Amino acid sequence: MGGTHVVVIPDTFCDQKTEADVESRHLTPEAWRAKTTGVDRLGRAVQEEYGLSIAFHPHAETHVGHQRDIERFLADTDPDVVPLCLDTGHVSYYRGDNLDLIRRYPERIGYLHLKQVDPAVIDRVLAEDVVWPEAVRMGAMTEPPGGVPEYPPLLPAIEELGLDVFAIVEHDLYPCARDVPFPIAQRTHRYIGSCGIPSLEIDRPKITQEQQA
């Protein structure tokens, strides 16, 4: 079907319905090695057997969520088989610095999820240890350009480094009324198109009113 990447998202350590921790929030050294060597094996197998590349996606409420965890993960995995799917919203969820990651690890950025978070909501989420689905319902993810990270200078940095990466624009909204997402997609499309990136190719939003149901 023309795909190039398989985005790999680790499971959360919190049950998304009961909010209870289902495993420790901190991996032992042995468990961390099992994770990183396992992702290496997965990346190599997907590349050799299917001709695709994985893209590992750091995520809120997982063991690779904070920037320090992302940096450790990059140090402990094989750069030839484990690119990063940099989700700007999830990095900012834990107050990470997307621009710093892009500039210091350009060779590891294989895929992008463009997303923004509302810093005021995130302050409350982190202070109260709110579980991820409830954080989304509270409006943790927000429509650009109203949140962080700011797309300028993030998009220009990608341009300057010559990174040829595919990006998905995301905005987590669940649950929501069916007429909410499409206007947001249209406004976001116009906004990103106004960011002045010469090489940026933007597909039109493919969401229809019927598909929102």
Which helices and strands occur, and which strands form pairs?
Layout: E1 5-8, H1 29-50, E2 53-56, H2 67-76, E3 84-87, H3 88-93, H4 98-104, E4 109-114, E5 116-117, H5 119-128, H6 132-137, E6 141-142, H7 151-160, E7 167-169, H8 181-193
Parallel strand pairs: 1-2, 3-4, 4-7
Antiparallel strand pairs: 5-6
Please, could you describe this protein's structure?
The strands form three sheets. A three-stranded parallel β-sheet has the order 3-4-7. Strands 1-2 form a two-stranded parallel sheet. The radius of gyration is 17 Å and the shape is globular. It has eight helices and seven strands. The protein starts with a strand and ends in a 20-residue tail after the last helix. With 213 residues, it is α/β, with parallel strands linked by helices. It has helices at 29-50, 67-76, 88-93, 98-104, 119-128, 132-137, 151-160, 181-193; strands at residues 5-8, 53-56, 84-87, 109-114, 116-117, 141-142, 167-169.
Short description:
This protein is α/β, with parallel strands linked by helices and 213 residues long. Helix content is 39%, strand content 12%. The protein has helices at 29-50, 67-76, 88-93, 98-104, 119-128, 132-137, 151-160, 181-193; strands at residues 5-8, 53-56, 84-87, 109-114, 116-117, 141-142, 167-169.
